Amino acid sequence: MEIYILRHGIAEVRGTAGGDAGRRLTEAGKEKLRPVLARAREAKAAPSLILSSPYARAVETAEIAAEELGYRGAILRTDALLPSSSAQAVWRELREHRDQAAILLAGHEPLLSELASYLLGASRVLVSIKKGAMLRIDVEESDREPSGVLQWLITPRLASTGGG
Fold first, then answer.
1. What is the pLDDT of residues 15-44, one digit of tens each?
2. N or C: which end of the chain has fewer CB within 10 A?
3. Domain range spanning residue 65?
4. Which residues contact 126 (CB under 8 A, 6 or more apart)?
């Protein structure tokens, strides 16, 4: 299974109306996501399912990803991707969708860095995912703990400089 992990883009500052869950992406956040997703499209990213945290900024990020990557299905919101969740909870959610070839996850830190490290079989956090960054980890189907392989990581800075 291909797992794409996408951290939400730059969001409104804390204390805006609607509390943390209602914070939306800023225009700069949206603009910085698009080059990352264009690079991901060039790398043949093609999710068969998109899961998102129910928080507004993650849902908006997932919607932009769907548009940029040509995804036509529904975006499923899951509490497994809330900031307070755990890597193990996300792994259980992924296993519920094991029939999918490629799943994109849109969410928050520190959960996504913990998840990436967990999927790579690390016993501690080894990855730091910046706002608007996306990575791909390939994981074999399993009922056990995951042991994935990092395929690529695209940061907004890398995407905007044309580096590769």
1. 766 688 989 999 999 999 999 999 999 999
2. C
3. 2-161
4. 117, 120
Look up the CATH number of the domain holding residue 88: 3.40.50.1240
96-98-101-107 Cα dihedral, nearest 10 degrees: 30
Place of tokens 């730091």: 128
Cβ 46 vs Cβ 70: under 8 Å? yes
How far is the C-alpha of 72 from the C-alpha of 164, rounded, in Å? 28
Q: How far apart, in whole angstroms, are the C-alpha atoms of residue 14 and residue 89? A: 26
When divided into structural domains, the chain yields a total of 1
Whole-angstrom distance, CA of residue 110 vs CA of residue 113: 6
E strand intervals along 36-116: 49-52, 75-77, 102-107
| Rg (the chain; Cα; Å) | 15
Pairing of strands 75-77, 134-138: unpaired
Global confidence as pTM: 0.94
Q: Which of 19-23, 40-44, 63-67, 79-83 has the lowest mean pLDDT?
A: 19-23
